[in-house]
Amino acid sequence: MLKMETLNSTHPSTAASSSPLESHVPSSGSGNGNEYFYILVVMSFYGVFLIGIMLGYMKSKRAG
User: Fold this and answer.
1) What is the pTM of this model?
2) Known Pfam families for this protein (predicted)?
C-alpha cells in the first residue's frame, strides 16, 4: 500500500516556500484566445439548453 508522508510543520515544504503570487502570474502569449473560446462554447451550450427547456414548456402550455 502507498503511504502518505507526514508533513513536518517545522521544516518548510517546497510548495510552501514559493510565494503564492508567483504561481498566478500568467505566461505571456500562451493563451491565444482559447480561454475566451471555451467560455463562448460553454455559454452557447447553456443557452441552447435553456431555449430547449423554454420551447418545451411553451409547447406544453399551448397544447393544454
Assistant:
1) 0.44
2) ISK_Channel
